[in-house]
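Hey,

Quick one before I head out. I ran the complex with iron/sulfur cluster overnight. Inputs first:
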Amino acid sequence: MTAIPVMIGRRMPLPAASGSSDAFAAEAAVPAAGAPLVDTHGRVHRDLRISLTDRCSLRCTYCMPEQGNEWLAKTSILTLDEIEQIARVAAADGITTFRLTGGEPLLRTDIVDVVRRLAAIEGPDGRPVQIAMTTNGIRLPELLPGLVEAGLQRLNISIDTLRRDRFHALTRRDRLDDVLAGIAAAAASGLRPLKLNAVAMRDVNDDELVDLVEFATAHDAQMRFIEQMPLDAGHTWDRTRMVTQDEILAALSRRWELTPVPGRGGAPAARWTLDGGPHTVGVIASVTAPFCGDCDRLRLTADGQLRNCLFSTTEYDLLPILRTEPAAAHEAGIDRMLRSCVHGKLPGHAINDPAFLQPARGMNAIGG
Ligand code: SAM
Ligand code: SF4
């Protein structure tokens, strides 16, 4: 059986292994395994976000519903061996960073082994890949020593509020103390740069922006505010309620002199120094100042779907390759699918287009 990219509601033609007359005939001209993953807009892909699970210990309102989640089937979740197989091909094709995410990646019982196996992978130049993780921080105190020993290099921890009642309302769980303990453990570890993420929300935490930055700098971390995106499972996102980058910067400028940091490259966050530095704050303005032109990211969902954008409605299914094709064909099949996924990448996410369609998956099932 051969794998096909899946478009929500319909199937796209097969990516061709060699020349063919179908819609993927252009694949015949696509570089062979080992060449960089360059899309039709010239963007070179270096970053693969790997979602390890769609499960989570929290239920953030902007991400998951309180109840009634349609969980991914356990049998469809990629195994450790399958993740490693995909990552090896991706690294050979020029991916240099794997960011582990979810759902909550620390809920995966084999998380230390995942880090260990991926950290042992080298790129074509013989350099080891970078392993980063985005987490809600719960379970970090117990797991961090093992993760660092296994090869974890960078951490982003999400914290939207420092107030316990708000945290409970926002995440539907009373676990602020666990998150704070996770951040303390990360700050005490040698992992730097340490980044803290908050989704800025009107009348929820927009009066805490300065407090969050001060909290981050006290932990030698960089605070990053994220504009809320239409990725909640309940499809309740409302543009008119969104806190924009301009509003975030206006609130922070009342406390600090903000100076733009040049040289952003493909990073999602634009950064500013606070009163000349050394501390900085970042803003990820996916809605009001999209940075698609420099995007170097691909995503792999926990159930083996490659995605070329958070907002894509097309997925490229690796499971049939991994589970029904002979082992000898896996490497070529994964490579072909990576290239089809990159080839199909649009110039931008079109959130601001009236015809924009929110993806069927919530953020927890895509991998943030
Ligand atoms: N559970 C981990 C965490 O919260 O850090 C990793 C997964 S979470 C989906 C990754 C990031 O996506 C978090 O920083 C979270 O705040 C962000 N996120 C989730 N839903 C979002 C939305 N609708 N808009 C903007 N950011 C969102
Ligand atoms: Fe869980 Fe992260 Fe989504 Fe919050 S943002 S519900 S912590 S996956």
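The domain at 5-366 is CATH 3.20.20.70 (TIM Barrel).

Talk tomorrow,
K.
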